[in-house]
Specification:
The protein has 750 residues and is α+β, with helices and mostly antiparallel strands. It is 49% helix and 18% strand. Helix 5 runs antiparallel to helix 6 and helix 5 crosses helix 7. This is Lead, cadmium, zinc and mercury-transporting ATPase.
Length: 750
């Protein structure tokens, strides 16, 4: 070996290339699945453009664009060449996945969400005759009727009238087809219809060509109507937040009320919410008591009584008392704006079935064109068939082969389901989540805050040294500042009995075991019995007391000045009133439940027995991960496992499950992290999610059957010479109508 090997200087570490700025466009005319696919393909073929997210129901295109490679003007020109009108909505630099805690560093996030809401308002559903598809239907229909009328006056004029109706009606389709050819997508639906219509004119079948163009325009109109109906749910959300607010200004006796635009409110300001009015921004009640109707936001049907310290959502209806509310979030970043933004992103996220159909259609459409060519050429050349007859059948096959209804079958159903869920407090982040939910057969529940109220109360205090108040004061000093429900229960009890909290420092959480802090010069620990036993042996009498409390379903924590035991505190968290009903509904759906908890086995068993489900107790966070993995491996075939938690402490387990469902009542973490969230904060929402997802997948299967079944019928009748060109287009237009109407049934989900 070379004793002095030549050393090579390490390559300098390079910072990753910064992500190109995000742009958001409102694309007028993009109101069907095929439109969205074309624009997505265009972006993918544009140098410097990446990560397109397209939602045809809201007519929104999001993408990252490096303008040093392709200027935005060039991108917009390409979109216009496809027949659409793009309008830039969100400024550069907006990050679509910025978490709320980063909002201060990403001010554009709020603007993006605000414009999400404004954009939905701009998407006014015009009367059908005022839309692009409506104008095309009217134009082709008038020309068709005119040609028919000419037939009674002068047959020769009628022929030219049909030709004119065909050419004028097919011109927009031909433009789109040519734009697709230039952009690398020659085999589009527009291409098939254009070839079929012009071919029919060439073989002197102009009347049928005109009818074909008219029926195709009707099919596109139906797709636009479907998009408008699905969009209505999001528009309803955007309309919830009031336009004005009553701002309180001044101090003491000089306080006055001034009506201001709700969009001008800022964090920290105080507003008055009068009976019958809507809350203008997310905030906290400072004074007053009232029942608030949260149903517009969370889907909760019963008004909830709230008072000082309780959180309120923008858009909730104040039913009786006058409330004073502190604004906690900018109106552009309130719960409604976040829901709209996340629903829009969910609708842009394709389900696996939709991605498969997109891939299939890339090969299917050119395959149809190739088969039609063979049918037109082979029988006349080699079998002695008549050219006119087989050309006619080939053109009919092109129309039968149009994949409009097939491409539409999944996204309209998914969009309708996501919109229906959002209006009922069920937030689903994309078609992939819906498909996975439909296959869930096991649901793992966290206990605290999910199956139970999440507001445990101290029931017993046993002081081994000093008084009960002193014990509570020391324990609260260790736990103060913690967000854990048990810690909050101890602090609340200490405040209730008037205990004095000595100064504390160096608070630390011992994950899954307890907490410790420096109090009065000594390190005190509040922990579980198992953790306490690791620090010091427990006397038999103490162990007996702990066992007796745990048999009553109570959670016991111990306060130690290691190794000395200072006392015991028992806490109980009651099951939610709807927990038993929710588990019963899941069993009716064939879904099994299991409770995962860090509590001791006795407490967990006491809660689980009352609810009638299996329990795994005394779990560390890593144990929950392991059990979720075991449950996933135990499932057969394509069956899936869901995890339901509060979206905070259970984040690792939520991520490990096939579907993570967060209980959160609209909290930031619940909205931003899990695959789905129950805004109503009711555990019965889990069964609602599964019912909605299964219903959606049934509709998708029906849609695909409609689309392919009608094509099969008309293919057979056309080749047998029973049906011709204009009935052939019904194989697509008729399927489009059936698929649209069938999908819109999901909007009525209850």
């Amino acid at each position: 070996m070379n004793p002095n090997p030549r050393r090579t200087a390490p390559a300098p570490v390079q910072d990753p290339a910064p992500e190109a700025p995000e742009l958001c466009y409102l694309v007028e005319g993009m109101d069907c699945a095929d439109c969205a696919n074309k624009i997505e393909a265009l972006v993918n073929r544009t140098p410097g453009a990446s990560n397109p997210r397209v939602a045809f129901t809201t007519q929104v295109l999001r993408l990252n664009l490096d303008e040093s490679v392709t200027p935005r003007e060039s991108l917009e020109a390409r979109i216009r060449s496809l027949g659409y009108k793009p309008t830039l909505r969100v400024p550069d630099g907006t990050k679509s996945h910025t978490h709320p805690e980063e909002a201060a560093h990403h001010p554009d996030r709020g603007e993006a969400r605000a414009q999400d809401g404004e954009r939905v308002h701009e998407l006014e559903d015009k009367p059908w005759h005022a839309t692009r598809q409506g104008r095309e239907v009217i134009t082709t229909g008038v020309l068709l009727v005119a040609a028919l009328v000419f037939g009674f006056i002068e047959p020769q004029l009628s022929r030219w009238g049909y030709i004119a109706a065909t050419l004028i009606g097919v011109w927009p389709l031909a433009r789109k087809a040519w734009a697709g050819v230039r952009l690398g997508n020659p085999f589009s639906i527009n291409t098939l219809v254009t070839i079929a219509a012009i071919g029919a004119v060439v073989i002197d079948e102009a009347p049928e060509a005109a009818v074909v163009v008219f029926l195709f325009a009707v099919g596109e109109l139906l797709e636009g109507i479907a998009a408008g109906r699905a969009r209505a749910g999001i528009k309803a959300l955007a309309a919830l937040a009031p336009k004005t607010a009553f701002l309180l200004e001044g101090e003491g006796e000089d306080i006055r009320t001034r009506e201001v635009p709700a969009s001008s409110l800022r964090v920290g300001q105080v507003v008055q919410v009068r009976p019958g009015g809507r809350v203008p921004a997310d905030g906290t009640i400072l004074s007053g008591f009232s029942a608030l109707d949260d149903s517009p936001v969370t889907g909760e049907s019963v008004p909830v009584s709230k008072g000082p310290g309780d959180s309120v959502f923008a858009g909730s209806i104040n039913t009786d008392g006058v409330l004073t509310v502190r604004v906690d979030k900018d109106p552009s970043d309130n719960t409604i704006a976040r829901i709209i933004h996340l629903v829009e992103e969910a609708q842009g996220s394709k389900a696996p079935t939709a991605r498969f159909i997109d891939r299939f259609s890339r090969y299917y459409t050119p395959g149809v064109l190739a088969i039609a060519t063979l049918i037109a050429v082979v029988p006349p050349l080699f079998l002695g068939g008549a050219w006119h007859e087989w050309l006619y059948k080939a053109l009919a096959l092109l129309l039968i082969g149009c994949p409009c209804a097939l491409v539409l079958s999944v996204p309209v159903a998914i969009t309708s389901a996501i919109s229906a869920g959002a209006r009922r407090g069920l937030l689903i982040k994309g078609g992939a989540v819906l498909e996975t939910l439909a296959r869930v057969r096991t649901v793992a529940f966290d206990k605290t805050g999910t199956l139970t109220e999440g507001r445990p109360r101290v029931t017993d205090v046993v002081a081994l040294e000093g008084s009960e108040a002193e014990l509570l004061g020391l324990a609260a000093a260790v736990e103060q500042g913690s967000s854990h429900p048990l810690a909050k229960a101890i602090v609340e009890k200490a405040d209730e009995v008037g205990a004095t909290l000595p100064p504390s420092s160096d608070q630390q959480a011992v994950q899954g075991k307890g907490a410790q802090a420096m109090v009065q010069g000594r390190t005190l620990v509040v922990g579980s019995p198992r953790y306490a036993a690791e620090l010091a042996p427990l006397a038999a009498e103490v162990a007996g007391q702990i066992e007796a409390m745990e048999l009553q379903g109570k959670t016991v924590v111990l306060l130690l000045d290691p190794p000395a035991l200072l006392g015991l505190i028992a806490i109980r968290d009651e099951p939610r009133p709807d927990a038993r009903e929710a588990l019963s509904q899941l069993k009716q759906l064939g879904v099994e439940g299991v409770m995962l908890t860090g509590d001791n086995a006795r407490t967990g068993q006491a809660i689980a027995e009352g609810l009638g489900l299996e329990v795994r107790a005394e779990l560390m966070p890593e144990d929950k991960l392991r059990i979720i993995g075991e449950l996933r491996r135990a499932e057969k075939g394509n069956q899936k496992v869901a995890m339901v938690g509060d979206g905070i402490n259970d984040a690792p387990a939520l991520a490990q499950a096939d579907v993570g469902i967060a209980m959160g009542g609209g909290t930031d973490v619940a909205l931003e992290t899990a695959d789905a969230a129950l805004l109503r904060n009711s555990v019965t929402g889990v069964s609602d999610l599964i019912r909605l997802s299964r219903g959606t997948m049934r509709v998708v299967a029906q849609n695909i059957a409609f689309a392919l079944g009608l094509k099969a019928v008309f293919l057979a009748t056309t080749l047998l010479g029973v049906t011709g060109l204009w009935p052939a287009i019904l194989a697509d237009t008729g399927a489009t109508a059936l698929v649209t109407l069938n999908s819109l049934r999901l909007l009525r989900f209850r």
